[in-house]
Structure prediction request, 348 residues.
Amino acid sequence: EVWNPNGKYRVVSTKSMPGTRWINLLIQQDCRLEICTEKKTILSVEDIIALIGDKCDGVIGQLTEDWGEELFSALSKAGGKAFSNMAVGYNNVDVNAANKYGVAVGNTPGVLTETTAELAASLTLAAARRIVEADEFMRAGLYDGWLPHLFVGNLLKGQTVGVIGAGRIGSAYARMMVEGFKMNLIYFDLYQATRLEKFVTAYGAFLKSNGETPVTWKRAASMDEVLQEADIISLHPILDKTTYHLVNKERLAKMKKEAILINCSRGPVIDEVALVDHLRENPMFRVGLDVFEDEPYMKPGLAELKNAIVVPHIASASKWTREGMATLAALNVLGKIKGYPVWFDANR
Ligand code: DGY
Prediction:
């Protein structure tokens, strides 16, 4: 699909994206925009090299693509100066390779913070109150009357929520769970926790001044402290070498037997094979997953487990957010082409 065929700058988007604002932005600024209409979901490096062609000023790409040495070299040969992931996460992008070939890299932080945190909160509630199991039960025609034991789950109020990775999204999730459900909080982050600290201090004081039971909060000294103390644990770190398999067999064993684990970050943060074993051995342990180690696949056995809720990487999938992500990605590429700052930000 080609927009503004006579535009001076050739910009390629490897996928169609929601909304029209991003398209208008580019074509109003003298770009010829080419949107790939290939039907297959995941494009290979060869597919993208073909899209880049001989002349390309910038590319908007997706988290399913492998943006490494080969692609940045091809983009640079085609005269390209800019690449933006339509995602805040950029573990699919080799930033060093981009630097080597003089290509600026952008991502799309901010616009997906609340939407992603809302999905983490939805998975938490769905797991705590066994909503998916209960829905399946109804549809199977198994409901024959109210029973005291039917789908008994957990009350969140007064329980402890553990947040690992207190950046933008982790902090927004913590705020939702503390403010919305009056949960106590324990969190761990090596670097970024200031915004979360400010919120809990102010919120605790607010509850106290109103004569309500204040929530408690604590910055943990180690990740294991969170795993041991929390009833609900939500993972929000970036994926890099240090967070690969952050949750492994040993760490799963440290969690409470009836804990709930949520992951809306990246699949490889959890050792999924170890998780399947743990879920099998601990039927009261529950998990809500938006991301998977070998996306789009799930490790064998996961799909059959009743104590797992699985959704297809939809944490940022609200209309407003997806349109915002598309717009930011277009601005990133346009910004570099036109000489404005590119929005690259590792501070998730
Ligand atoms: C991201 O932006 O990194 C999410 O995984 C997709 O929105």
